[in-house]
Amino acid sequence: MLEMFSYPFIIRALVVGVLVSLCSALLGVNLVLKRYSMIGDGLSHVAFSAMAVATVMNWAPLTVAIPVVIAASYILLRFSSSGRLSGDSAIALLSTGALAVGIFIISMRSGINTDINNYMFGSVLAISKSDVTLSVVLSLAVLALYVVFYNKIFAVTFDEPFARATGIRVDFYNMLIAVLTAVTIVLGMRMIGALLISSLIIFPAMSSMRVFKCFRNVVICSAVISVFCFLSGLTVSYEYSAPTGASVVIINIAVFAAFCAADFVRGKIGIRNEKSE
Description:
82% helix
């Protein structure tokens, strides 16, 4: 463990990974409860396309991808709220279209296969010092906004009609959730990859919901699970020279299975106690 932390790229991955894990876990609870958890998959494909264009043009990938993905989240939300397309249909159209554009652009330029693999599957080596600075600033901004608007986000997540009736600007806070999600997706892509980043949003939230029912407890548990799975995945990746993204996802799956088992056992014990009474 001490040897692992002697490498600068591991420290960079650790800092960015913990912050992105926290952001994705907090937002994931809201997205799962709103049945909008696959938005991460759609936005990650848009981010891949934007990064592909940036790579071909020799631009800074994160600087290009963040505003593009924020714009895509706005368009996605507008399409869904207008009723013209369902949420799933809008995400499917956006994700497949953006992925096709990214692949087409890459095919026009040879010699950048390594960068594309990093975007698709993630790599701790792909995180530069400038990426760390930008990621830390934006991640802290995401966490701060989530904490400041926690009550409003909670209200919009559970009961939009009631929140609207009480004067809460539902459209604004839905847009805020989408924008924060977009930023988190882009920041995590360089390390986890476009194909796996949505798992950071889904698995911790689903795992914590198997055991806890209170929203605040679910959020806290989800954050703890997400950070634990990332740290464990980073360690496994270093020890066995395995892809970081895949390692993190596999550990998330194992944790989800353990929480499902705990929920099952708790249910059985509850039924047995009821029968004994």
